[in-house]
Write a sequence for this structure.
């Protein structure tokens, strides 16, 4: 059984990299062993701190992509050009290396399996990461809450967790996945590339009268546009929860 996240004072813990996965050419999945991990809720994030030999340190926040359970925490990191932390995590860190990690952080942008309301997930780029934790938790809990994911990505090569999402959507009738490509659609796609708009959200998200919980994550401009559309479509603003980066 997954442990519940324990609120309280956050402390830095030593996390050891156990395994990695290449998610795209510019994104990497990182699984850490974190002894004493208190547990987390899907949608929460952690702070990661790197410290150089001269004492200089830098920290960044990353969403958790794994379902709760045990002392393992999975992150998905998108490499940022000229970044201080993401290139190290994506290109340098190897199994057995250690970093400092603090969390879990956040209590608003979380999904709880006990909530029976249908769920609309809307992701822009690497904004899929905390939503993936929700999808995985739903499966791990055996939840029958219906999920609809609308995922905006530049090209097919930029879709994180592409194989897993296809498999889960194929095997689980309660999970619908719609990917919108903004720059290049796959060959034979029924729709040309374009930005996610009103028609797509109205068609592939749950209608407002179903009173779904809506979780929107991505770059600031994307999140603001999507949340405005959802409210304009009649969704209760209190049920539209957002997480933004950049």
């Amino acid at each position: 059984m997954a442990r519940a996240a324990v609120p309280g004072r956050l402390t830095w813990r030593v996390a050891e990299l156990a395994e990695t996965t290449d998610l795209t050419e510019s994104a990497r999945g990182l699984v850490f062993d974190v002894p004493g991990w208190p547990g987390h809720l899907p949608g929460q994030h952690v702070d990661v701190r790197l410290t150089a030999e001269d004492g200089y340190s830098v920290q960044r926040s990353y969403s958790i992509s794994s379902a709760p359970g045990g002392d393992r925490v999975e992150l998905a990191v998108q490499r940022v050009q000229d970044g201080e932390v993401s290139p190290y995590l994506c290109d340098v860190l190897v199994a057995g290396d250690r970093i400092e990690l603090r969390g879990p952080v956040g209590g608003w942008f979380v999904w709880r399996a006990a909530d029976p309301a249908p769920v609309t997930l809307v992701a822009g780029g690497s904004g899929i990461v905390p939503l993936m934790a929700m999808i995985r938790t739903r499966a791990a809990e055996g939840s029958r809450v219906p999920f609809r994911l609308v995922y905006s990505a530049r090209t097919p090569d930029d879709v994180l967790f592409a194989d897993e999402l296809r498999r889960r959507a194929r095997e689980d009738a309660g999970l619908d996945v719609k990917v919108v490509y903004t720059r290049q659609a796959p060959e034979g796609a029924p729709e040309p590339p374009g930005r996610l708009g009103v028609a797509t959200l109205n068609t592939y998200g749950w209608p407002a009268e179903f009173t779904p919980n809506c979780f929107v994550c991505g770059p600031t401009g994307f999140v603001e546009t999507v949340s405005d559309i959802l409210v304009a479509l009649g969704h209760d603003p209190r049920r539209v929860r957002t997480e933004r980066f950049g």
